[in-house]
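thought: user wants a sequence for this fold. calling inverse folding tool.
action: design(structure=
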């Protein structure tokens, strides 16, 4: 059974950086795609970014493109979301999700495509 645990959230000023980690427990992390989503109060959960199981394909929401980077390190069973140039509108609870297999170059991006989810970590960007 797959379990995911996010860490690295916190309070940061506008323009600052944070790196979120997603620890994976279970077999064969190397064949799992990982996605990051976020949910602000009163809003739906939205896609942020994702990486394919191969690590050779990524995709991002337009709102975070060129600021956020998703990666995975199979040797550590961990995926990352590097967030730079943070804005107040990035404030949300951030979730990682994992799904086995899929495309080599195009990661899943919809919530229903991911079977396993973490509990979330809060990111707050002050203005």
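)
observation: tool returned 127 residues.
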């Amino acid at each position: 059974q797959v379990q995911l645990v996010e860490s690295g959230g916190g309070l940061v000023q506008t323009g600052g950086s944070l790196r979120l980690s997603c620890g994976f427990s279970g077999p064969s992390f190397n064949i799992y795609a990982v996605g990051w989503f976020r949910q602000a109060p009163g809003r739906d959960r939205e896609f942020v970014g994702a990486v394919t199981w191969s690590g050779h394909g990524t995709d991002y929401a337009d709102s975070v493109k060129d600021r956020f980077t998703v990666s995975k390190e199979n040797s550590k069973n961990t995926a990352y979301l590097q967030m730079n140039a943070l804005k107040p509108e990035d404030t949300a609870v951030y979730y990682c999700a994992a799904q086995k297999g899929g495309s080599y170059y195009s990661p899943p991006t919809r919530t229903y495509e991911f079977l396993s989810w973490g509990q979330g970590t809060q990111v707050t960007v002050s203005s």
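thought: summarizing for user.
answer: Here is the designed sequence. The mean pLDDT is 97.
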